[in-house]
Design brief:
The complex is a heterodimer.
Chain A (H helix, E strand, L loop, with lengths): L15 H6 L2 E10 L6 E11 L4 E5 L6 H8 L7 E6 L2 E2 L5 H11 E4 L11 H11 L10 H7 L15 H13 L5 E5 L7 H18 L2 E6 L10 E6 L2 E3 L1
Parallel strand pairs in A: 3-8, 3-9, 6-7, 7-8
Antiparallel strand pairs in A: 1-2, 1-4, 4-5, 9-10
Helix pairs in contact in A: 4-6, 5-6, 6-7
Chain B lengths: L1 H9 L1 H37 L5 E5 L7 H4 L2 E2 L2 H6 L4 E17 L5 E11 L11 E2 L7 E4 L1 H5 L7 E4 L5 E7 L5 E2 L2 E7 H8 L15 E2 L1 E6 L7 H8 L1 E5 H4 L6 H33 L1 H9 L4 H34 L10 H23 L16
Parallel strand pairs in B: 4-10, 6-8
Antiparallel strand pairs in B: 1-12, 1-13, 2-11, 3-4, 3-7, 3-12, 5-8, 6-10, 7-8, 9-10
The chains are: A alpha/beta, B alpha+beta.
Amino acid sequence: MTTSSTSPRPGYRRDRAEQERGGLLVEGVTLSLGDGDATVTALDDVHLDVAPGEFVAIVGPSGSGKSSLLAVAGALTTPDSGRVLLDGVDISRASAREKARHRRERIGFVFQSGNLIPALTALDQLRFALDVAGRRAGDGYDPRELLDRVGMGHRARHRPHQLSGGERQRVGIARALVTRPAVLLVDEPTAALDRARSDDIVTLLAAETHEANVATIMVTHDHDVLHHCDRVLSMVDGRLSE
Amino acid sequence: MFLAWRELVFARARFGLMSGVVALIAILVVLLSGLSSGLVNDGVSGLQRLPVTAFAFAEGTKTDSAFSRSTVNVSQAEAWKGRPDVGDAAPFGNMLVNAKATTAAGTQVPIDLALFGVEPGSFLAPAVSDGAKLGDPDGIVVSQTVLDEGLALGDTVVIDRLGTRLKVIGTTGDQRTFGHVDVAYLPLRAWQQVHAGAGPGDEAREGAYEEATAIALRARDGSRIDLAGGDAAAGTTSMTLEDSFSASPGYSAETSTLTLIQVFLYAISALVVGTFFTVWTIQRKHELAVIRAMGASTGYLMRDTMIQATVILAGSTAVGFLAGVGGGTLLTTTAMPFALEAGPLVLAALLLVGLGLAGAAAAVGRIVRVDPLAALGGQR
């Protein structure tokens, strides 16, 4: 784990040219939730730069804005102000249709507990992600090889209810990576796992981040796994700090 | 299609239950369609098989009682014949009688007949599949259904009260019924005598031999009869052949009742399918949010669900129709008015599938409202 003390803003590490070339750049993003008196500032002038192959963890208490940051970075919601650049392309102001296209082509999500599709086997989870993205297994995409890589090759024909929590999470990671996204957004991957399995999963995430050269943001409450991350940022009241 | 098929296999019990309900509805639709066709045949097949475009009844005749109340003068046919759009016009007599048939074995069988009085040699005279053509003064050509009831060519039918004896000389070879009563064609003069209540050897009252129920009209090839103009010229009230069906006893009540039941069945089917997919979509809300977060478009998800609905509806409708046709085939051998006809069955199948798909489409509209943001967090 390393932390930066030279960045001009909390969350920034690279120079401008590098930031616009690749990876994820969140630039001055503000997001408010709710209406009228019930309005809450979920993200307050957030700046974050994640390079390809970099594994960044964001920690913070519940309600601090971690999930909102994932939502903005993952083109699930539109910020009130600021920009989100994905490989140099601003996705924050895209239409709903374009956002969906960015998500299926350039963004991978790893959800809590895997959030796998109950009807699909482990292998089909990956094939389905390719189908959604309009890609076909064999055209340079190898779901079986990826399943082997995450240690789930022997469970390829099993459905989610036949897998343990850790196995489901491994399949979820493989599903997120099978379309070769530029960014991997990971939401509390160890929330339902014991300590040993949590460590295994985050080790796998770190390895795949470096192997696939993907910019990874992991939101977590689990401080025991942070040593696997390249950088750890904390979020409090919608503000990000080193 | 990738997810649709796998979900159908995975949740086969749930989809199977749904398919079973649709299949049962399909069986009911087939049986009602067969009953409907059977009742139509029983009610108006005698009219349907007349080479007639329209009937001209006595002026002011109401549709629902036209055949039983109307009396026209045969000379009115001449006024219609002179119309440029009328190819043929001939007097047509129609009445229901109770009779007894005496078979060759000497047994007496009670029988009801719809007597169609037509001029032998006119365009209304029936083609005969077996026996002799209409012509003998006391000879009748009967619907095949009369022979199916045990009568044979050469048997005698005696009309109740009058004692008029009519001899079965030929058969049309097909079903011809009117108001659920078998049709017997007889010469118009014999019909006029029976209609006037004159028994054998009696002279009918004055004017009886000038009467008929209506003037049957056949349009000139390629023409459409100007009924209003003809009515003004002939002093009649005319209606098309199809409109005249409503004048068959019980026809409107029976067909409208069955149509209403069928409409309800279609509506129930659409509602059942719509409800199933509404519940199915609600149950999958989180899963759909995950799939949308993965970037699936609304169209992708709706297409998947509509494929599932199509497979269920097409499959269960096919199974239901096969079972219904199988059961219906057995019913056609009974006395029940039941007829399986391809046209109404195909239409019923298309309606069942089409309305079911409409119900499913209305239900899966909920997919549009599934927020991919719901995929984040710990709902599972």
